[in-house]
Write a structure and sequence with these properties.
Helix content: over 70%
Radius of gyration: 15 Å
Structural class: mainly alpha
Number of strands: 0
Shape: elongated
Order of helices and strands: HHH
Oligomer: single chain
């Protein structure tokens, strides 16, 4: 039981660190790098996979902390993960296209 809490805390800290890094890079307009498109795809994939698995009754172990306040909150966080993935991909692709047109 104690290792579950440690794993979920570490996962939460890693996701917070990743999101803060993305926010800083967005502020400095560095979203034209292809790595941000890959990160957007990863967020999108994680969101879709976690929703599909939760329908079946399974969950990804490193995303299990998302269910801390019940299934509805977990579902909303997963939908937010998908939306963040779409937003990151859209912004990075738009900036790449704008830079190529100039």
């Amino acid at each position: 039981m104690q290792s579950f809490h440690l794993t979920s805390i570490i996962s939460m800290l890693l996701i917070i660190a990743l999101l803060s890094t993305l926010a800083l890079n967005l502020c400095f307009s560095l979203m034209d790098k292809p790595i941000f498109t890959v990160i957007g795809y990863i967020f999108l994939l994680l969101g879709f996979v976690s929703i599909i698995l939760s329908i079946v009754g399974l969950r990804l172990s490193f995303l299990s902390f998302l269910e801390f306040a019940g299934p509805l909150v977990g579902f909303m966080i997963k939908i937010s993960l998908i939306m963040i993935g779409f937003i990151i991909m859209y912004i990075s692709k738009t900036i790449q296209q704008d830079r190529l047109e100039e």
